[in-house]
Design brief:
- With 70 residues, this protein is of the alpha+beta class.
- The protein has a single domain (3-69), classed as Macrophage Migration Inhibitory Factor (2-Layer Sandwich), CATH 3.30.429.
- The protein contains 2 helices and 4 strands; from the N terminus they run βαβββα.
- The strands form 2 sheets. It has a two-stranded parallel ribbon with strand order 1-2.
- It is elongated and about 50 Å long.
C-alpha cells in the first residue's frame, strides 16, 4: 500500500479533498497496476508559527512583508 505524505498550510476541507484526489490520480497514472483504493494520502497541516525559512519564523516574515507593503 503506497503512502503519499504532504505537509503544508491549513486548508479548507474542499481543497483537502481535491489534493487527495489529485495525488491519488497522479500516483495511479504512474503506477497503474496498483488500484486507486490502495493509495493512502496523509495531509499534515503546519501552523505558520511552526515553520521557519532562512532562519526566521514564517509568521514573522509574513508580518514584516505586510507592514512593508503598507
Amino acid at each position: 500500500m503506497p503512502v503519499i505524505f504532504f505537509e503544508g498550510p491549513k486548508l479548507p476541507l474542499e481543497k483537502k479533498a481535491e489534493m487527495i484526489k489529485g495525488f491519488t490520480e497522479v500516483a495511479n497514472g504512474v503506477l497503474p497496476r496498483i488500484p486507486k483504493e490502495a493509495f493512502v494520502v496523509i495531509l499534515k497541516e503546519n501552523h505558520i508559527d511552526n515553520v521557519g525559512v532562512g532562519g526566521e519564523l514564517l509568521s514573522v516574515m509574513k508580518k514584516r512583508h505586510r507592514e512593508e507593503a503598507g
